[in-house]
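Entry 14. Ran structure prediction on the chain below.
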Amino acid sequence: MAVTILNNLAMKKTIIFCGLLIAMVQTGTAQNKTNLSLQVSAAATANRAQLTHYTWTRTVQVFIGGVLKNTIVSSLAVGADGKIVTTSVSATPAEKLPGGIRGDIARKKIAEMKTYVDNAVATSMTYLYLNKGQMVNFFDAAGISESGNTITIKGSSVNQPNDQLTMVITKGTLAYVNQSFATTVTGGDAMSGTISYKTYSNGLTALNNGELDLPAKNMKLMLSNANYAKKLQ
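Output, structure tokens:
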């Protein structure tokens, strides 16, 4: 009986030790995730500060049913409040508009299309520019893996219930490589997107190109950013 009691005590100690070990590992993992999120957030904030010295051009091509319908060109910059300021430059329909009432109807449809496109682009920006709190919450609940020179962070319920976000960053510099997400726009229409980044020789990492899919409208948006230029002093 004494042997049985000793065995039971040893088993209980083993169970308690394993429980403490698991708790320590989980705590360490959570701390590592939080530390990494803060480092990524700091790198993104520093990059955003560098971006404030630039203006650039964004081109959005609107395809419906695989056919180019409109090309929207905008001038972008970071405002004093840290938010992206968008100035519309041009919206060019792929086909010449008819005159008269038919032309008025076509112009109304183009305006409605642009409003829908602007909302989709604005929604996508909420995933590309997470603040510190959002970044910490995202990392803490996400799965994190490493491969080669990159780190992949994959999580859900970032800005909306059950949305999805995958972020790929470079080890060392923690610069964005690409991001992909699945969410909904205003009105509840589903949207998925992929965005790629480019790091320039001066260390600036900026959005390069991407695409947004909006199946409810049979619409695809092709985005490209170019002409990054220093602001005039």
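Residues 39 and 174 are 8 Å apart (CA to CA). Will compare against last week's run tomorrow.
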